[in-house]
Amino acid sequence: MARRGEELRTHILYAAKEVFLELGFERASMDQVAARAQTSKRTLYAYFASKEALYLAIVEYVRGVSLERVKTPADYPGPPLEALAQFLARFMQSALHGPAIQMSRMSIGVASRFPDGAAEYFEVAFQSVAERIAVFLRGTFRLTPRTANDAANALLGRILVPRFLRALFAVDPLPPAIPLPPDTPPVSSSDLGLARELIAEIVEPLIEH
């Protein structure tokens, strides 16, 4: 049965993401996307008016996938600080897997000529995660918005460096892709241990006063 409507749009986005990751934004073309999606250029343009519009739609698609994988700290079991540690460890797993690193590289590559696209990906990949942490800290521990935001950004900055940068610049091998739930593997004990250490250093002093 032929795909239609939202199913076809999602199929095109998945195919387009693969083309963009393989070739980069500049080299990827709408012809290649149409061929990979096994649809016509006319159909492709009916959904996406330009390659830039298609890229922004891919970023929004990635947002949904990332949210499904990472969720929010409140979705994890256990005491609040342990739930936050689980969330951070899952975020690291998601941020370091191959397609996420490739998307980051591509977004950096187009930042000078397509800043809106790069900024949108930054919001999806990092800022939205910081906001989820800050919301959790405000609601759970009654921290002020500024304190919660500062703590969230500190947590992300400390847990990302240096492993994310080493993967981004190909110092370390590109990690493999990870499947979506329910097949997503458990988080690593090292990531979870680091998350707990950072929470003890950054968050616990704020809630003890």
Quick rundown:
With 209 residues, this protein is mainly α. The protein is built from eleven helices and no strands. The protein folds into two domains: 49 residues, Arc Repressor Mutant, subunit A (Orthogonal Bundle); 157 residues, Tetracycline Repressor, domain 2 (Orthogonal Bundle), CATH 1.10.357.10.
List the defining traits of the structure above.
209 residues, mainly alpha, Arc Repressor Mutant, subunit A, Tetracycline Repressor, domain 2, 2 domains, 11 helices, 0% strand, elongated
Structure description:
The chain has helices at 5-27, 30-37, 41-47, 51-70, 80-96, 98-109, 115-141, 145-160, 163-168, 189-202, 204-207. By secondary structure, the chain is mainly α. It folds into 2 domains: 1-49, Homeodomain-like (Arc Repressor Mutant, subunit A, Orthogonal Bundle), CATH 1.10.10.60; 51-207, Orthogonal Bundle (Tetracycline Repressor, domain 2), CATH 1.10.357. Helix 5 (80-96) runs antiparallel to helix 7 (115-141) and helix 7 (115-141) packs across helix 8 (145-160). The N and C termini lie far apart (62 Å). The model has no long low-confidence stretch (mean pLDDT 91).
